[in-house]
Specification:
15 strands, alpha/beta, about 35% helix, binds N~2~-sulfamoyl-L-arginine, binds calcium ion, binds zinc ion, 2 domains
Length: about 450
């Protein structure tokens, strides 16, 4: 018989082993997905229009022979009963399992290749803030559901002071799977900062304007899309019915829940609007920034479809400023076209895409009456890759968008009327982030800052 102490040690060892396995499991395998959705494919020849009219299919992409959609499982039987042939492809798209797919998406250096995860974006922004302290400052607008920062890089002369200057905000990644929409505003920030000294046009913009860059409104969703499920769209709220996610671009308060076409009351839906306006900390953080500063124009980057959209989105009617918005959007589309010859369609959001209620741009226009654009970045359609842009495309997409955003920045400067009785003050109520706030490796998946 073994001595008691040895036996005790053995049990402690066993306990520790079990604990270790238990604790490390989510780190290595990712949270097991509890998806209500399947990815299904149809033959390319299918009558897409009638299919989309009948079922709430969420288009993803297309390859040589097939078109792919995301669909709630509960509709599968009715699609079959309606006589449509489809194949379930969900397993093929689990990037965590099938490395061949990630290879075919030109990915290198980990699952997200040249794209930025939350922590990679944090490092990039902290480096920029440390390299250009005289003309930018990094803030956190608030925390996500899973406690990640909503980063905001403010670029301006005297960046610590709120001055009587026009302000423009560029937002990216309301939707997790739209990775390119993080890169474009980040690269724009990088360009502005690098060229301040050498380019008088850029210096003039930075000296006379406050530019707020929020590349990642949905940090939890983005990391979930990278590490667990590539096609995730919403944030990572645990809903009352056990499903996950609120569509952040349906959670703003203007015309929220106006109808069930432009957003869904169903928590499991990909366009779930949330239990009430601004129920999500991510949209609330954005709201606070816009309410505490008076902005002159905003752009919210999404993908895909190559379009520049302006309100209204909740109803197919013009706003009072439709003419101005149409002019600005057309001017931007022309500038974009000149770079790589890619056409971005211009139009009222509700007319050129589909109805949405509770979206960011309707809220911005509805409350502040300023130009608010949704720019849907490439590709143009599913056949050209849907939500997947290869890493090699990041630069060209950013470059074609640069002249357009500079144009809007200069428009904001020339259309600015200084506020009377304005008192410059230290940028209030926001948490300043510095490079010394380095995360340790173990927190990588949890999104904690330090
Ligand atoms: O549905 C959305 O939120 C946006 N499209 S996406 O494919 N990126 O999800 C479009 C928002 C544009 N605004 C309106 N149509 N109101
Ligand atoms: Ca300034
Ligand atoms: Zn989007």
């Amino acid at each position: 018989m073994r001595p008691l102490s040895e036996k005790k040690n053995f049990y402690i060892f066993l306990l520790l082993l079990v604990l270790l396995i238990f604790l490390s499991f989510p780190l290595f395998s990712g949270e097991q997905s509890t998806q209500n959705e399947e990815i299904i494919s149809f033959a390319r020849e299918i009558d897409l229009k009638s299919l989309l009219e009948r079922f709430p299919l969420d288009p993803l992409m297309s390859d040589g022979q097939k078109v792919y959609f995301l669909i709630n499982k509960k509709f599968l039987s009715s699609i079959k009963e309606a006589g449509y042939n489809f194949a379930i492809e969900t397993d093929r798209f689990d990037l965590g399992k099938d490395q061949s797919i990630s290879k075919s998406l030109h990915q290198q250096g980990g699952l997200n290749g040249a794209y930025h995860s939350y922590s990679e974006l944090g490092s990039a922004l902290k480096s920029l803030a440390a390299a250009y302290p005289a003309i930018c400052r990094l803030y956190s607008l608030g925390k996500s559901v899973e406690n990640r920062n909503i980063y905001a890089l403010k670029i301006s002369d005297n960046p610590a002071i709120r001055e009587n200057e026009p302000k423009i905000a560029l937002l990216g990644c309301h939707h997790a799977r739209e990775w390119i929409s993080v890169e474009v505003p980040l690269l724009i920030a990088d360009y502005l900062l690098k060229n301040y000294i050498i380019d008088t046009r850029i210096r003039n913009i930075i000296d006379s304007e406050e530019i707020w860059i929020i590349p990642l409104v949905n940090p939890d969703g983005l990391d979930y899309s990278i590490f667990n499920y590539r096609l995730w769209r919403k944030n990572r709220r645990l809903n009352s019915d056990g499903s996950y996610g609120v569509d952040l671009n349906r959670n703003y308060s203007f015309a929220w829940a106006y109808d069930n076409l432009g957003s869904s009351p169903e928590p499991s839906s990909d366009t779930y609007r949330g239990p009430r306006p601004f129920s999500e900390p991510e949209t609330l953080s954005v709201m606070n920034l816009l309410q505490n500063n008076s902005f002159t124009a905003v752009i919210s980057y999404h993908s895909f479809s190559q379009s520049i959209l302006y309100p209204w989105g909740y109803i197919n009617l013009p706003t009072e400023k439709e003419q101005l918005f149409q002019q600005l959007a057309s001017a931007m589309a022309d500038l974009i076209y000149q770079v790589n010859g890619r056409s971005y369609e211009v139009g009222r959001a509700s007319a050129s895409l589909y109805l949405t209620n509770g979206d960011f741009t309707d809220w911005v226009y509805g409350f502040f009456q300023i130009p608010a654009f949704t720019i849907e970045l490439p590709p143009v359609d599913l056949i050209h890759g849907g939500f997947f842009n290869s890493e090699e495309d990041i630069q060209s997409i950013y470059k074609e968008n640069l002249p357009a955003v500079l144009y809007l920045m200069e428009w904001a400067i020339s259309n600015f009327t200084p506020q009377p009785n304005f008192k410059p003050e230290i940028e209030p109520k926001l948490e300043k982030i510095t490079k010394s706030m380095v995360k340790n490796k173990g927190d990588f998946f949890k999104g904690k800052e330090n």
